[in-house]
Write a structure and sequence with these properties.
This protein has 5 helices and 6 strands. By secondary structure, it is α+β, with helices and mostly antiparallel strands. The protein folds into 2 domains: about 5-105, Signal recognition particle alu RNA binding heterodimer, srp9/1, CATH 3.30.720.110; about 105-135, no CATH class.
Length: about 140
């Protein structure tokens, strides 16, 4: 996901100078402190956009440039957020909006026309196709 330069300036309160303008990569880490320790051990001369910081809503984040100059953003995922991505049903997850990660639960009952219209579960679609072909 590429953010506009203004978004970075507003969030960080400073200009961000892109190294290569090629790409921005986004990752989530359960233990962001352990990730940073490993990063600094492997790449002690890493160029930071910002070191570990915490947003007012409690989200931890670090931003840096990889060896190719791509902007990397890594956020810490809270236990609450992990509940929305670990062993869950379809329709539950996390949405990143700007710098905020928002949990959502948008499950749709499988017996509705809406579910049939928007279902992207390949296993269910294959099974449904088999049932239709068997009924012919």
């Amino acid at each position: 996901m590429l953010q506009e330069e203004k978004v970075w300036k507003d969030v960080l309160g400073k200009d961000v100078v892109p190294e290569n303008n090629s790409c921005e990569l986004y990752f989530e880490e359960k233990d962001i402190e352990a990730f940073i320790e490993k990063l600094e051990n492997l790449y002690p001369s890493i160029q930071y956009v910002n070191r570990l910081m915490m947003h007012s809503w409690g989200q931890k984040v670090i931003r840096f440039y990889d060896l190719d100059g791509n902007l990397i953003e890594v956020i810490g995922v809270s236990e609450t957020q992990l509940r929305f991505v670990t062993n869950i049903s379809s329709g539950i997850g996390l949405i990143k909006c700007g710098s905020v990660v928002i949990p959502f639960d948008n499950q749709i009952s499988k017996d509705t026309d809406l579910y049939k219209l928007y279902n992207t579960n390949i296993h269910e679609l294959i099974e449904e196709k088999k049932k239709r072909e068997a009924g012919k």
